[in-house]
Design brief:
The chain is globular and about 75 Å long. The protein has helices at 141-144, 244-252, 285-292; strands at residues 25-27, 30-32, 40-54, 63-76, 81-90, 94-107, 110-118, 151-161, 166-174, 177-180, 182-183, 206-214, 220-230, 232-233, 256-268, 271-283, 299-309, 322-337, 348-361, 364-375, 382-392. The chain is mainly beta and 393 residues long. 41% of the residues are buried. It has 3 helices and 21 strands. The chain starts with 24 loop residues before the first strand and ends with a strand. Strands 3-4-5-6-7-8-9-12-13-15-16-17-18-19-20-21 form a 16-stranded antiparallel beta barrel. The longest helix is centred in the middle third of the chain and has 9 residues, at 244-252. It has one domain (20-392): Beta Barrel (Porin).
Length: 393
């Protein structure tokens, strides 16, 4: 049994219906203040990175990248109805719509949402602005098992049960795409290539996504997430109901996906602790791998724990300037269990990331860290230096 100690600042509600500070519209990827100086609001964030592999035997060029530049555009139609969108450019040449949804307040504690939604799984998939996490790069657990940024089209409800100090989300969404001319899922990166991202998405099976978060203890947020469903496949399109052999092929191109997650964030006197655990069971993988010649595992698991401390808190020079040394220990395995194939030990990965986050102003981070990357198939860990700039405005 894996026990995690979790943490970080409590980040309050998405489109909360409560009063005072909770009237702020806080969509997972940033606070968008609507109705404070006009019905429209524009905000954004950016991340620029330098990554350098380090090896005593091999020389590597450094890699520099405008990793992402994002604009949030929100519009408030009334006190009850708003629209939120997020437009992202990655690597200076790839354009995506990362969020685009309507939010309507039905009653106190109940909001209806429809459109492109973030899947509420873990921490970083919802709160992924570069100034909200330590390290230049996001945790790899939130890349290879929780395929951040994971968003799909759907509808559902979100709200706050104040008497119980609980926030909830529950959505019906389209699932991953597992087959389009060829198989899209594999052992190396799990479900990541199956994200449809609202790009002419298909729906063979609806999926369920939900999360409950408890915030009843000061500066502590604990979350429990679940995702249940099946992938979609283009092989079901124009398929005759009596075409048994074609139906069998289509069924073999589908994977069942059941994922659960636990996460927590806590901060006390400058100490920040956060952690996350994700476990996924995939069904029909033996048939899927045989049909697509893939190596998808039927169980995936991962966790990380992270500790940071603000070392400048006792200096009176500038309260807005903060310096956090941090360390994160992480493990994730996309071949935690396999069916009908041999486990690839390279997919059981261990990582240690340690470095500094220097907050020179609210919304402006300078970051540097060293990563020690290991897996069960290599004799020694590889190293990577990361330096980055993150802004959120």
């Amino acid at each position: 049994m894996i026990r995690l100690i979790f943490s970080s600042l409590l980040i309050f509600l998405l489109f909360s219906t409560s009063s005072s500070a909770q009237d702020t519209l806080h969509q997972n990827t940033g606070e968008i203040l609507l109705g404070q100086g006009g019905n429209m609001s524009i905000r954004g964030y950016a991340q620029i990175d330098y990554n350098q592999k380090i090896d005593s035997d091999i020389r590597y060029n450094g890699a520099l990248d405008v990793h992402r530049f994002v604009l949030f555009v929100g519009y408030k139609f009334s006190d009850k109805t708003s629209f939120i969108s997020e437009l992202e450019v990655e690597h200076a040449n790839e354009f995506f719509v990362e969020q685009a949804f309507l939010n309507h307040n039905i009653s106190r504690g109940i909001n209806f949402r429809a459109g492109m939604l973030l899947i509420p799984m873990g921490i970083v998939n919802e709160y992924h602005e570069p100034t909200t996490f330590h390290g230049v790069e996001r945790p790899n657990l939130d890349k290879y098992i929780v395929p951040t940024t994971w968003r799909e089209i759907g509808a559902g409800f979100q709200g706050n049960i104040q008497n119980a100090n609980l926030k909830y989300q529950a959505y019906v969404v389209n699932g991953f795409k597992s087959f389009d001319v060829e198989g899209l899922l594999r052992g190396s990166d799990g479900l990541r290539k199956g994200r449809q991202k609202g790009i002419k998405s298909i729906l063979s099976h609806p999926n369920l996504s939900g999360k409950v978060s408890y915030y009843g203890i000061k500066s502590l947020n604990i979350g429990a997430s679940a995702y249940l469903g099946k992938t979609s496949s283009t092989l079901y399109n124009n398929l005759a109901s009596d075409a048994d052999s074609l139906t069998k092929n289509a069924d073999s191109s589908v994977v069942g996906v059941n994922m659960v997650g636990l996460d927590a964030r806590y901060e006390i006197k400058g100490v920040q602790i956060r952690g996350q655990y994700i476990f996924a069971i995939l069904s029909n993988t033996k048939e899927y791998n045989a049909f697509t010649n893939a190596d998808l595992g039927n169980q995936m698991q991962g966790y990380y724990v992270e500790l940071a401390y603000e070392v400048m808190q006792h200096l009176k020079s500038d309260a807005k300037t903060k310096l956090y040394p941090f360390v994160r220990i992480e493990n994730y395995n996309t071949h935690y269990a396999v069916e009908g194939l041999t486990e690839n030990k390279a997919y059981n990965r261990n990582e240690i990331t340690t470095g500094l986050t220097y907050k020179i102003h609210e919304g402006v981070d300078l970051k540097a860290d060293m990563q020690f990357l290991d897996n069960d198939a290599i004799a020694k860990a590889t190293k990577q230096l990361n330096i980055g700039v993150g802004v959120w405005f």
